[in-house]
Structures are given as C-alpha cells and as structure tokens.
C-alpha cells in the first residue's frame, strides 16, 4: 500500500536527474507530543513526511495491539498526506537501563535476537504504513569483543531482517553512527560485502555525521553514497563533535549539500534529526522547514507545449 513512486536501484525514480527534495521531521524530536498531535503539527507546517521512531510514547513496537494501532496510523498518515520512514533508534525501548540496549552485537545470542525481533516488527510496521525504508544501526562494540567477531554477529543478526525486508519490499537502511562498530560509509561497504551485497540493504546517510567524521565534505559524501541512499537524516554539526544542532548553529554549508542530494534523484524523505531538542520540538520544527527550503535548489520550471501552456504530462 505504498503511497510513494517506485524507486530504482539507487533510490531514484525514472524522472529527471534533479528531483525535488521531500522534507520530514523526526518524532524523536517531538517526544513530548502525542503522536497524533505531532503528525498534525508537521502537516500544518507543510512537511512532506515524518521520521517515525518506534518508541513507548508514540507507536510502541512491543504493544499487544501494535497491528491495530499501525492500521489506524496508516489511515491518519493518508488523511494528512504525510509520507513516512520507520526509525528504530529509541534509547530505552528494549531495556529501561541500557541506552540502545540490547544491540545486534551483544555477546548473549538471546539479547541479539531481541534487537533482531524489534527490527522484524519495524519491517512489518513499515510495510503496513507504506514507508520508504526501515532505519537501523549496528550498536557499540561490547568490551572484550574483537572486531571480527563483532562484524560476524552483525551480519548474522541482520540476515533475517534483510529476508523480511525483501519479502515486504521495504529497504533496510543502515546508519553509520559515530562510536558504533559501523561508524562510517566505508564501514557500511564492509557490511555490504560481508552480506553479499543484498538488494534490500541500503544506507541511511546522516548529513551531520558526514561533517563530524567522514573524510569527504558532506556534499561529496552525498555524491559518493548516492547509489545506496535509502534514507537521509539532516541537522547541523561541527567537525569532530557528535552533537546534533539546529540549523545555523554548526559548520555545515547546506546549499551545496542539498544540491548534491537533489542531483542524485533521491526520492525518500530527508528528515530533521534533533532528538535532544524535543523540549522545544514545535519551535524547531517550525524553524527548520523554511531553512531547508531556502537552502534547497529551486525546482525546475514546468515543461510547456508549443502554445506556452504547461504540458499536461508534467
């Protein structure tokens, strides 16, 4: 029941090389709002979609009535005209005492299975909502675990998720996260090779993380990652400091980044990621969209026929 045009192998459709960008805002930056209130806010502000973090205060992935709540949410998103991506970065949804625990790298196989189970639920939710991707990350390498073992655990834990994603037709978009085993785009390619380059494995690119630690400038990072882009997160950031900042508070020059992103033909959501500004979420949601629209390249003019009228096919 996807509400979005079918994408090609690199996340691009069959249209022109430069595609209008679609902006969303993450619910992890609106954690003090009820989910329906957050969605109504984003629709009223003019966002194209929402990055939905599965968490206890919004759509609890462990709730007994998850399927029924997901069906209701799908109807609500349709009514509001919002696209969606499903994100799985909730801090304490599986363990109230360990941030992002358990992870896909934990020594205990049962703990790893719990994280895999969460991702399998996320794929089911994404299929019901018509989401363009399911986001996830590797987790921090546990103390006493060597790197080869960690990579093996990650590949094994993700294998059933990728099978489910292929069945559902929803890409799994792994995010390089500073401090995690899979921290960079190069690390993503390590995982891709270990898994045999499966079709439904894609990349979540966080623009702030590019500024923070990637060797390439953010615009070049976008171009290099283009064939695997399935989800994009965006915020400001400074070099060497993993702190998500409101636009204008960091060091990123956004127009070249958004121009590069539009040129890839990427048609998924570009989601504002400000989880530590949730206390003022409505303010930052209202402020962020005009900033992004000013920084984004202007859409190409509509094609016209010989009489000078807009073409009926465009």
Description:
Residues 304-314 have a biased composition (Polar residues). This is Sugar phosphate isomerase/epimerase. InterPro entries: IolE/XylAMocC-like (IPR050312), Xyl_isomerase-like_sf (IPR036237), Xyl_isomerase-like_TIM-brl (IPR013022). Residues 39-294 form the Xylose isomerase-like TIM barrel domain. The chain is 38% helix and 14% strand. By secondary structure, it is α/β, with parallel strands linked by helices. The chain has an eight-stranded parallel beta sheet with strand order 3-2-1-10-7-6-5-4. A two-stranded antiparallel sheet has the order 8-9. The longest helix has 22 residues, at 147-168.
Architecture blueprint of SSEs:
Elements: E1 22-26, H1 35-45, E2 49-53, H2 66-80, E3 83-87, H3 109-129, E4 134-136, H4 147-168, E5 172-174, H5 185-194, E6 201-206, H6 207-213, H7 218-225, E7 229-234, E8 236-238, E9 241-245, H8 254-263, E10 269-272, H9 281-295
Parallel strand pairs: 1-2, 1-10, 2-3, 4-5, 5-6, 6-7, 7-10
Antiparallel strand pairs: 8-9
Protein name: Sugar phosphate isomerase/epimerase
Domain Xylose isomerase-like TIM barrel: 39-294
Pfam family, one: AP_endonuc_2
- List the secondary-structure elements in sequence, H or E: EHEHEHEHEHEHHEEEHEH
**Main β-sheet description:** 8 strands, parallel
- The average pLDDT is 92
Strand percentage: 5-15%
Question: Which features does this protein show?
Answer:
alpha/beta, disordered N terminus, isomerase activity, two-stranded antiparallel ribbon, 314 residues, 14% strand, Xyl_isomerase-like_sf, Sugar phosphate isomerase/epimerase, single chain, globular
